Amino acid sequence: MENSVFHLQYAIDTFYFLVCGALVMWMAAGFAMLESGLVRAKNTTEILTKNVALFAVACTMYLVCGYAIMYGGNIFLSGMGDVDVAGVLGEYGERGDFEGGSIYSGASDFFFQVVFVATAMSIVSGAVAERMKLWAFLAFAVVMTGFIYPMEGAWTWGGADVFGMYNLGDLGFSDFAGSGIVHMAGAAAALAGVILLGARKGKYGPNGEIRAFPGANMPLAALGTFILWLGWFGFNGGSVLKLGDIASAHSVAMVFLNTNAAAAGGAIAALITARIMFGKADLTMLLNGAIAGLVVITAEPSTPSALVATIWGALGGVLVVLSIVTLDKLRIDDPVGAISAHGVCGFLGLMLVPVTNDGAAFSGQLIGALTIFIWVFVASLIVWGILKAVIGIRVSEEDEYEGVDLSECGMEAYPEFVSSK
User: Fold this and answer.
1) Which DSSP string corresponds to 120-176?
2) What is the pLDDT of residues 90-138, one digit of tens each?
3) pLDDT (tens digit per residue) in 106-119
4) 4: which residues sit within 8 A by CB, 6+ positions away?
5) Per-residue exposure over 335-353, b if at least 16 CB sit within 10 Å of its own CB, e if not
6) What is the pTM of this model?
7) Beta-bridge partner residues of 394
8) Cα–Cα distance between 393 and 137 in angstroms, integer?
9) Which label site among 173, 226, 257, 398 has the fewest CB atoms less than 10 Å from its CB?
């Protein structure tokens, strides 16, 4: 193979990584819009502040230590350096496997990985909305993105043994783009926080009644969902890790197709389920249904047919509605449905992988899911507990009533309107 072809494939695969990473970064905007649309007007500025700040914290902590924990090598201190062109050409030329391997800039790999970390933390933001202290949340973000997530990432995508006891890959665990590693992990951290935080004041009545707190901006929530839908093509498509040959290009196309099909299936199924259960076309359930379908297919978007992907997404759409209703009955207050869409449906996605991927085993998927959930939930519970004891994690009842925009940020998102109490 001529050197020019090596150069071209290196450039194509590196560029593909960077573009997909940028798409995943755009999901941060999706989470910010979705969450700010689903909370009450008096809490909008604080939600936006959290989403921008957590992205910055995630990028910094993963650079400082997270990537080193997950994959080894501290790029914060050493940097990536100049690419050794002769070394790259020589290595792949000697091995003779260039067409079947992945070859790209290490810097592009870091960029693609770091936006996944931010996605996991964004899931936490919506679940603890409207009653958590901003600085307690950001303190947790430091630990989550710098240590908790990289540890479980090391045991899965990093290939390390779990506390030196067993290797998830050897057990038949597979998670293509992170249904469990990213989404269920974020939901597990959120669940731990919500349990210690408690429900919003007035959400649940003394006789078991559940009171709805309508979001302030449904157009914004819908826009956020479409942004997430778009960004997910980078999330799943980039996880092919390669574009510059025929087989990889076809795999990327199938991943895009299945990702879209699953989202559509989830949206339709959630809309129908909500109509049957509530007698109305519930927009919030429709939005969560699309996200649920996306989360489910994330575990394995490359091997199903488009029909199977649509069915899997539909299963997620039904499940997310049932899960949101169930968590409310259990008095687990999640303002945006993040624990259901990302956690419960993330688990479903993991367990569906062996249906079309014969390299995965149901037992391995279950062990992997339990490993991720237990580690993230317990570690998060400890961190949240320490924060609660040291600085407190919940705003005062008065501040919650007035809105955390004023108490935490000193400004309102819609100052020309009267705040909704």
Assistant:
1) HHHHHHHHTTTTB-HHHHHHHHHHIIIIIHHHHHHHTTT---BTTTB-TTTTT---S
2) 555 544 444 556 688 888 999 999 999 999 999 999 999 999 999 999 9
3) 889 999 999 999 99
4) none
5) bbbbbbbbbbbbbbbbbbb
6) 0.93
7) 132
8) 8
9) 398
